[in-house]
Amino acid sequence: MYRYDEFDHDFVQARVKEFSAQVERRLAGKLTEDEFKPLRLMNGLYLQLHAYMLRVAIPYGTLSSRQMRMLAHISEKYDRGYGHFTTRQNIQYNWPKLEDVPALLQDLASVEMHALQTSGNCIRNVTADPWGGVAADEIADPRPICEILRQWSSLHPEFAFLPRKFKFAVTAGAQDRAAVKTHDIGIILRRNAKGELGYEVLAGGGQGRTPYLAKTIRDFVPEHELLPYVEAMIRVYNLHGRRDNKYKARIKILLNEMGLEQYKKEVEQEFANHPPENIALPQSEIDRINTYFAPPAYDSLPEKSEALNQARRDNKDFDSWCKHNLGAHKISGYGIVNISLKKPGQIPGDATGDDMRLVADLADKYSNGEIRVTHRQNLVLPDVKKDDFYALWQMLVAGGLAADNFNLASDIISCPGLDYCSLATARSIPVAQNIANQLTKSDKQQQTGKIHINISGCINACGHHHVGNIGILGLDKKGEEYYQITLGGSSDHDSAIGEIVGPGFSFDDVPKAIDKILDIYLANRYDGEEFLQTYRRIGTQIFKDELYATA
After folding, report:
1. Of 169, 414, 440, 504, which has the fewest beta carbons less than 10 angstroms from its beta carbon?
2. Which residue from 343, 347, 393 is spatially nearest to 85, judged by alpha carbons?
């Protein structure tokens, strides 16, 4: 698991002290807001619509129970009793007072956490498959390379002021649970014909005003060459990336303008100009970091649990939760428990202090003290015995965290939207709540099965609407909120950008439109087809015809 080394500890303590002095100067009027802005952003502190917001890094989405309890404490001491887990596997606090931020950062540092590089034109938090290290379908554990990337990118002097923010994602499974093709650089673990571990490296993904999916730059980069290779990739971007227009500054624009083959050519030349041995980690260092992620001492258990099967037969609610919220574990007798933060009426991704403490307690009791955050704004307990599922579920029920909708229609990604964000053009949270409430009342999501609905409150696409199976984008139209719907997006291994269906819908009409889309799917699907499969088979026109039939 992510841990401080000596440098991390000393630097973070020095940064907290430094920022405390900067806050004092701002509060005393010795710094203007314009002068203070770059200083606060270097420490993850934003100024949003109503208040400051602090974004805390959770490297590759991995937390200890001790860290989760500290996040709960911070939510209650410095905020309004909750935090918001984001699509970058971070947590945000939306209401801290400026004068409290230094103490907040000191509390974070006490559990080896910080807010560095969660803002600014630098390499942001490296995200990863939240099932990493335990997924039955993975080639190898992706977390060691995430930790190597974290250490390499932290305070990298050459990449502290890139043309624009820069994001990595890493996955190792047959299913892409990290949305790697939506990132500036995506990394997929591979094995070559000799069985050697390496990486497929992609570049140029991103959403926002001009969405692109990342393209493969090299099919296989050997394990010891990855750092030199991605360094060459970023150097080429840093050299050619535009700094005169922030809307055209991302690497996706560079690849589109330069062309994939020319970018590849320049990367390979840059890579050749700097011998890998000058940057590459020695095997001893790779081995040392691998020890951080040594598996726990698993018990020898049968694959099937009769106690679990009996509990599922006896309790239909528990059976439904098992059907939707469990993942396949690589170790016999264990499973992956996915905890939904999307119960009806809940703000997607929000967790109260009590919620966080409950999850920490469950992690200690049932999952070796470890918790993961997903890019879909949920939580994961990665190492749970099947025999313990029922007792764990009962505790989730008592704590109000037993929603059985993981990967169903009400498991909605939503950005904060106009309720918090100064960039937003429309609300997104209440749209998500209205859709979830409607789905729960009709129970239609049990019929529709796996489907991803993503909502953004502006064109910046923090809610990943471009890659939602159903995407919703909030826009301002002459002072009124309207919502544009896209269909067919995906962030999985079969990634796709959604297609706009037609004119936008009013705030009140969005849930009705989603209901109609699901009806069209149910009426046209073949047995066993998921929404995306049906959509790709029947196309967009049938949805357009029925959605706008009375328009």
Report:
1. 440
2. 347
